[in-house]
Specification:
Blueprint: E1 3-5, H1 37-43, E2 47-50, E3 55-59, E4 63-68, E5 74-81, E6 90-98, H2 105-110, E7 123-127, E8 130-135, E9 140-144, E10 150-158, H3 166-175, E11 177-178
Antiparallel strand pairs: 1-10, 2-3, 3-11, 4-5, 5-6, 6-10, 7-8, 8-9, 9-10
């Protein structure tokens, strides 16, 4: 399977203004999926997922949720397209892991276990008041829960001719909230 990071964040103003050219590691807003009247009507059909770990998000009705609890180091929330087949899968993956190292999202991303290559570049953002980092225009996003107990990695899976669920990922990330 091919995993790639995909994340889109709920926008907050960057902690420092962006001037001139933006460099890796700067605060910079994640590209938004935008809103218009058609989107507003579509958004009325969204479902809401509420986690026992203190967060929730919205998702479109053409995605089905599967939860894989009690894995040794993490749990997964998989939002898979109802049109996926074994050969052509399309999904948004939220991996929830213990933040037992007490790292910030940036420290973890730049550390040896994330698999991130510094040459790919990354940006900082906030999601519902929490510091976060993202790569590839939001295709991989990392954010901790407010108590720093858990780390959420939001990414995508596309195999075969499966579609990359860019808009769906944006809906999940832009609606992500933490219940403090």
């Amino acid at each position: 399977m091919l995993f790639a990071g995909i994340f889109i964040f709920q926008y907050k103003n960057p902690e420092k203004p962006v001037t001139g050219s933006v460099r890796s590691g700067d605060y910079f807003p994640i590209p938004s999926i935008g809103t218009n009247e058609e989107y507003e009507n579509y958004s009325k059909s969204f479902k809401i997922y509420r986690s026992d770990l203190g967060f929730s998000f919205k998702y479109p009705p053409h995605l089905a949720i599967t939860i894989t609890p009690d894995m040794p180091d993490s749990n997964w929330i998989v939002l898979e397209s109802l049109n996926s087949t074994e050969e052509n899968k399309s999904a948004v993956i939220i991996s929830i892991g213990l933040n037992d190292e007490q790292m910030t999202p940036e420290e973890w991303l730049l550390g040896p276990t994330s698999g991130f290559r510094r040459s790919d570049g990354y940006f900082k953002e906030t999601i519902d008041g929490q510091n976060a980092v993202y790569t590839d225009g939001g295709m991989w996003t990392v954010v901790n829960t407010p108590d720093n107990k858990y780390r959420l990695n939001i990414t995508y899976l596309a195999t075969g001719n499966g579609d990359i669920l860019f808009s769906e990922m944006g809906i999940v990330i832009e609606s992500l909230i933490f219940h403090k």
